[in-house]
Amino acid sequence: MMYDNRSQKNYSNNKPSAPVKKPPLDKLTYVKQAESVIRDEIQKDIHNRNNPNKPKLSTSQIRNILTMTNELYNTVRFEKDEKLTDELRSHIQYTKMKIAYNAGRDDIVKDFVKNSCLMQYLDEVGDSRDKLITFCHYAEALVAYHKFYGGDDK
Predict the structure, then answer these.
(1) Are 34 and 145 in contact (CB under 8 A)?
(2) How many angstroms separate the CA atoms of 5 and 138, rounded?
């Protein structure tokens, strides 16, 4: 059998990196966790200052994620039951898919999603109303600290 070498692409630079594993979100520490993630992002930006062509995470990119989580928050805050409905759990999965799509479109967003462990934390929500509210507050804290530390407004 003859093989065409052109079809054998080198994907070594596109290998998925191992996900960052962080401690679970906690309603007493989520703000500190969000600040730490944003400080790390800002440090990367400072380190890459010598390369002005290297894009930075913009406020609008991070606010897109917040918009998605706000939809969840606005639904769950009126729920009385501590256990999430199947419909809301399905909406969490849909939100996770939309975050993955946005991350797949832009490497800067992908790095942010990995470093902030958004996918991991969404998985950890399970059927807990309290964990979902903490996740939504965490996403809001990420935006707040991004703005506080002078995140890019482009």
Answers:
(1) yes
(2) 48
3-state secondary structure the chain: CCCCHHHCCCCHHHCCCCCCCCCCCCCCCHHHHHHHHHHHHHHHHHHHHHCCCCCCCEHHHHHHHHHHHHHHHHHHCCCCCCECCHHHHHHHHHHHHHHHHHHHHCHHHHHHHHHHCHHHHHHHHCCEHHHHHHHHHHHHHHHHHHHHCCCECC
Read off the pLDDT of residues 37-87 as tens digits, 9 standing for 90 and up.
999 888 876 666 666 556 688 888 889 999 999 999 999 998 889 999 999
Count of alpha carbons within 13 angstroms of residue 39, beta-carbon side: 6
Terminal-residue alpha carbon distance, the chain: 52
Which two tokens mark 115?
Answer: 């470093």
Largest Cα–Cα distance of the chain, in whole Å?
A: 65
What is the per-residue pLDDT for 49?
62
Separation CA 22–CA 58 (nearest Å): 23
Contact 103, 113 (CB under 8 A): yes
Q: Is the pLDDT of residue 104 over 80?
A: yes
The region of weakest confidence among 31-35, 46-50, 86-90, 102-106 is 46-50
